[in-house]
Every structure is written in C-alpha cells, then in structure tokens.
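Memo subject: From amino acid sequence to discrete backbone structure tokens
Keywords: amino acid chain, backbone geometry, structure tokens, three-dimensional fold.
Body of memo: The sequence and its backbone structure tokens, given next.
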Amino acid sequence: MGKGWLNGYIPYKDLFDHKGPLLYVIFGIGYLISNDSYLGIYILQSISFSFILFFIYKSASLFVNIHYAYIAALLFSIIFFSTGSLGASADEFNLLFTSIGLYLILKHFTDDNNPRNLFYLFIQGILIGCVALIKFNIIILWFFPLLAIIIEKYRTRNIRLALQYILAIISGILIITLPFIAYFYFVGALGDFWESYIIFNFIYSSVGTKIDPFFIIVKDEFTTNPIIMSIIIGGVVYFTFTDKIRSNILKSSIPLMFIATYYIIFKNTYYAYYIIGICIISVLGLIALLSIIEKKQYKQNYTHILIILVGVILINLFLKRNFIKQRNSYNHQIEFVNYMKENSKGKEPELLTITLDEGYYLLTNSFPVSKYFYMPAIKYEVYPKIIDSNIKLLKSDKAPLYITDYRYVDMTKSSAGYGSRYKEIINLRYEVAKVYTDYGKWPALQYILYKRID
C-alpha cells in the first residue's frame, strides 16, 4: 500500500486494504529506504520501540525512582517480545502512540493542576488521531481516562476549563485527521476510504463477536498469556485500590479503561497478535511490582541496571531465537519468485494473490494488477466483493500471468484452499507452474503457483 501510494496508486481507490492511511505513510517511508525488503520498516520500528521504552520509563518515574523506572522499561521489552509479535503490524506501530498517551494520562492523574495540562490534552488529541488513522478501535483506551479528567473539572465547578479540555482534545484529533480526509476528498477516494476502512472493519469486527460474559473472555486470554494478563490485572487492581492516584473519579477510569479496551480487542475471533494492542496496560503492573519492591528499600544502582540489561537482552534473544536462526524459511517464496522472474521475459511479473499476502509483491518489486490484491481473513458470504471482482478480472483480457494460492493437505484429502471459488476459471485459463509442500506442520501446507495458458 505504501509502495503503491508513492507510485501513483491511490489507497482504497486503486488498492484495497482495511488498515488506516497513516500506516501506509509509515510503510511508504520504509519503501523509500528499501524497496524490496523490510529493512526500512525494521529501522523505523527500532526507532519507534526506543521511544516506547523511553515513555514507559517516564511513566514509571512518576511513581518510583529513576533506577526502578529504567528497570520497568527493560522489563516491558520482555513482555513485548513474548507477545508473539512478528514485526510491522498496525498494533506494534500503535504502541508508540498508546505509550505516550498512557504517560500523559498518568502525568495528569498525578498533577491535576499542572498549567501545561491543556497543552498535553491537545497532544492527546493528536495521538488519538494517529491511532484512529492506523487501527481505530484502539482509541477506546483514551475514552474513560479523558472522560474522568473532564468530569473531575465539572465536579469542582471548573466548567470553563472542562470545555477548554474538550476543545483541546478535538482540535488535536482534527489537526491530524482532516488533512487525510481532505486528500481523499480531492482525489475522489473519500467513498472508497469510508467503504474500505470504516464499513469493512465494522463488518469484519461483527463476525465471530463473542457474547460470553466479560470474565469468560478474560479467562480465555489467561490460558494463552497468563503472565502478561496477571501483570495487567495486578496493575489495574493496584492503581484502583491504592493511593497512587488521589481522586476516586480518576481511579475508577483505570479498570474501565482496561475493560473497554480488552473487550473491543478480544470480542471477535481470536488472533495471537491481539495481545499487543493491550500490553501497554502491563506498564501499570510493572510500576506496581517495582513500587512494592522499592518500599522494601532494596537499593538499585547503575551496576545493577547494567546486569539487568544484559539479562533482558539474553531473554529477548531467547524469545526470538527462531527468527534469528531462520531468517527466511519460506522456501516457496524463493522458488516462486525466481520462477516468475525467469519466465516474465524481463517484464514486471503480473501477479494476483488470492490468499493472504505471501510477500510476492515485495520480493518481485511488482505492483498488483487488481485493486483486491490479497484476500483478508473474511468469508465470501460476509463480503463477496473481493472474490467477485477478481473472478471478473480473470475472465477478462487483463487476466494476470500468475496466480498464487495455498491449501492444507494430509494423507487422505486436501482442503479446497482460498481458490475454491476460483476453481472453474483457473482450470479454464491456467495451469500449475510450481508446487511447494511444507511438511513442517501437519496437515502439510501446499503452495501453488499457476501460470496463464497463452
């Protein structure tokens, strides 16, 4: 999406995806650094994560001394790397904005009369706008804390300041979102933006919504990430029932923030990376743990911090050992890409991926031939437009030279794969060019490259 935007394609109008446009700006910058790898994204994410750890340190330093605050930031890196993060996800980039937002919330809670609070709330609005332009459901994290701040001012009859707070937040949101809205309006893509980013995501989020009681949804996540969830719950309880925050109204927003954010993220079909969206709240648990240790008068110095730093690095290397050992174990990518390059007669490979994106556009440094250049994890019955549009393309004289698909196979049968609804047109116009079967898991995963019959 970022590469396409920088090469004349208009997001949502010419290329479909259901993430927010700010994410494509980030990926566009990554593309400028490296147009056929994720090196640029790696650099941007490394910078982003450095800022994340800095603001976690700042958050912790509001409640514990600086030595313990350093430790809080280091420990958070272990939490992050244990989430199963694969890199370059919307949730990971959102973490930068939520980490700054949480710091400013806690700073306001601990210093309600700071004359700079109005400016900080304007910054909060900008942060909310940024998150809204990447993955908008995460903005719920701000709702109850900011509502509590405004109610607190109403309660003390400082209505004028409460209204100023509201205007500051709205101004911050608008200053970041209006330029994007204006852009899509002037290029005639506002309707496409609304359809792809707003309507599609509401449809997507409504599929598989859980109607279980909240504690059942929490229990499900406890079985997958018990340590992270324990730290999060412990932090929420600690800040709710101790005097770290003086105002009861502000205190009450902490559990409401957790409940609302957790429910919005986990009410749908579960994906392992969802925990990234809420792991920022674990900062409260780390602060709680280190506050208790600090009360025991265990003194820390920079030598201890250096030892902990080395330990944290070793733990994080262990958590990501498989990625370090196997830089690219996707042999089908290499085989298929080499075949397409060798048989495209020096031209850019014309390619359609009818599955989730497998990285072929990146490795061939090519551009999609279809607006719907991959298949999101959504059923045809729920959103048929993607498959219907691509079948129409395959029947036309603009059909791409290659199609990629994958399916699961075992000893007795094979799944229909994503291509089941394409079967008729593929059999008519395409032949199998390459097949790669990965037996690393069972059932085995079989990747298929089709080539158009000319």
Observations:
- Residues 159-186 form the longest helix (28 residues).
- The mean pLDDT is 90.
- The chain has 19 helices and four strands.
